Amino acid sequence: MHDEPIDPFNGDPADPASGLHDPGDDAPLDALTDVERQDVLEDLADLEIYQALLAPVGVRGLVIECEDCREPHYFDWDLLRGNLRHLLSSGRPRVHEPAYDPDPDHYVTWEYARGYADGVHDTLTDGNDDAPGPEEPGGEEPRNEETGREEPGRR
Ligand SMILES: [Zn+2]
């Protein structure tokens, strides 16, 4: 009959509830948990990859559906990185300051960016050893009709 969830702070002197009435200056409020911190670090790492892949094809940043405003916000790469770093250091998200007057065509979702990165990764992986790629030098691609191949009935 152990239905109750285990109290993660049971017996822990760092129980956040014990410090509620002790506004220490140097104690960071709402510090991220290790898991949250890891998530942010992974987002930052993903962001580097996405920017490296997508910026060259004209994507300026990511669009994120805001749960507060119920509308999409557009973030430039630098702004996103700044927000994530701010979250890491302060433990709280920045008040959202989306890009000014963005062109939605230049922003993609996290999901799109992730799929794009996966696709590029798969392409690179597939092209490696066993499967000869389509750009194999010296391929014996049959010529098509428009390249001047002799056709019957035209001589
Ligand atoms: Zn918002």
From TrEMBL:
For bias type Basic and acidic residues, the affected ranges are: 140-155
Q: Which residues form a coiled coil?
A: none
Tree of life domain: Bacteria
Acidic residues bias located where?
127-139
Q: Which Pfam families match?
A: DUF5319
| Disordered: annotated segments | 1-30, 119-155
Q: What is this protein called?
A: DUF5319 domain-containing protein
Species of origin reads Micromonospora avicenniae
Q: What is the lineage of its organism?
A: Bacteria, Bacillati, Actinomycetota, Actinomycetes, Micromonosporales
